Amino acid sequence: MKISVIGSGYVGLVTGACLADVGNDVLCVDADAAKIERLQRGEVPIHEPGLDQVVARNAQAGRLRFSTSYDAAVTHAPVVFIAVGTPSGEDGSADLSHVLACARELGRRVTRDTLVVVKSTVPVGTGDAVRAVLREQLVRRQVSLQVTTASNPEFLKEGYAVEDFMRPDRIIVGVDDARSAELMRQLYAPFNRNRDRLVVMDVRSAEFTKYAANCMLAVRISFMNEMANLADRLGVDIEQVRHGIGSDPRIGPHFLYAGVGFGGSCFPKDLRAMMHTAGQVQEPAEMLQAASRVNRRQRGLLADKIRDFFGGDLRGRRIALWGLAFKANTDDMREASSLAIIDSLVGAGAAVQAYDPVAMDNARRLLQGTAGLSLAASAQQALEGADVLAVVTEWLEFRSPDFNALAQQLRARAIFDGRNLYDPASVRAAGLAYFGIGRGSRPGT
Fold first, then answer.
1. How many CB atoms are located within 10 Å of the residue 256 CB?
2. Are 400 and 329 in contact (CB under 8 A)?
3. Closest-CA residue to 303 (of 291, 316, 321)
4. Is pLDDT at 305 greater than 70 in this prediction?
5. Which positions ≥6 away from 111 have C-beta within 8 Å?
């Protein structure tokens, strides 16, 4: 099948590359000429494990091409995906300007019956708005074509996006006509062989499903973080609790890890958008509001623990910080907890030496000129002259350090484990103080 994908960012590039990988002829289009030039040279502008190989082999095979031209997109394919960004507005709403601009450009150009599939994360009613924009342009051109729309939200985890696309747990498709449903069924047939993963519903329900899924996961994380904070005060180990409640099949083991809060491009943005939508229809969305408040507080928790450890005075202290990306296996620092932690520490007079295995380019761009911050070339370099170590991202290379060596290097001999990676007893046996999230101990107790 011939497919065009508008938007060659995280979602669009993964979508286009993986659809090409099962034999489709895909054209990825983006307004960013520099990005398209990089992709045409074989450079993948984002860090996503396995994506560079998928892009390379399909580009070499001629099944995946890149362009800045909308004309090329509509000429190439009768199925066009919209996969552009929907950033948060100041009021928390999803900014749909890029999505509607795409619809407008497509409506001005289509010359045959076309299915326009919205892959971007969008609030309920966006499909209606896209359809109206397309119809308006066709009427202006006095063209009679069957241009239909579908919703096909993505459920890709950063760091596992290729695997998630190629082996999905479910494929949500929102359509309002039988022809579009059949086209989407054909498109996803290669990913649907051993069992039917396709869940077909109306467009508005599909749009809502994406937000509801991310909001549920965000609420689950905030719930565990709230339990962890309570556990610290009661002398309870939240890791033992996690295993205890996760063994209940009604709860399950996933998304029960306490930590420094959620970040990235999805959960914070989608939670805000859902709260905004709720406000528009006079629903209080109290659970979503609470999850958001807990997360804001959690992002500063590790810095608070470090400040308490030093009696409230961080002036002259040097903090080694491992991990800048919002989670492992990505270079994405959007709304990463590391940003809030660094801001709090340097604001209190501390010096921070930070390292991340893959996010250093983004860190230089985002944190350039931050007083009190230096970026280290390695985890070991970040430790040089440090008083304590703060672990913020759960990268594999941070999971099994030499605690005896750390005890010799850290002047104040303490580890602040924002991801609960370590066994407290093992850390303390090396002569280090240990403070995790909900591990039953707090500085000063």
1. 19
2. no
3. 321
4. yes
5. 74, 75, 145
Query: Using an 8 Å Cβ cutoff, are 172 and 206 in contact?
Result: yes
- Please check whether residue 254 is in contact with residue 244, taking contact to mean a CB–CB distance below 8 angstroms: no
Partner residues linked to 417 by β-bridges: 391
* 93 contacts 24 by C-beta, under 8 angstroms: no
Q: Tell the burial category of 408 from Cβ atoms under 10 Å away from its Cβ (0-12, 13-18, 19+).
A: exposed
Catalytic residue among 28, 102, 215, 266: 266
Q: Is the distance from CB of 325 to CB of 393 less than 8 angstroms?
A: yes
Distance CA 316, CA 22 (A): 57
Taking the C-alpha atoms of residue 252 and residue 246, their distance in angstroms, rounded to an integer, is: 5
Distances (CA, A) of 237 to 173, 194, 401: 42, 41, 22
Dist. CA 153–CA 173, nearest whole Å: 8
Cα separation, 266 vs 87, in Å, equals 10
> 330 and 358 in contact (C-beta within 8 Å)?
yes
- Identify the pLDDT of residue 213: 97
Residue 442 has pLDDT above 80, yes or no: no
Residues in contact with 101: Cβ distance below 8 Å, sequence separation at least 6, in sequence order: none
H helix runs in 351-419, sequence order = 360-367, 379-382, 403-409
The tens digit of pLDDT for each residue in 25-62 reads: 999 999 999 999 999 999 999 999 999 999 999 999 99
* Assigned token pair, 344: 């709090």
Q: Are strands 388-391 and 414-417 parallel, antiparallel or unpaired?
A: parallel
- Annotated active-site residue 266? The verdict is yes
CA nearest 52: which of 95, 17, 94? 17
In the beta sheet, which residues pair with residue 373? 352
| Cross-strand bridge partners of residue 389 | 320, 415
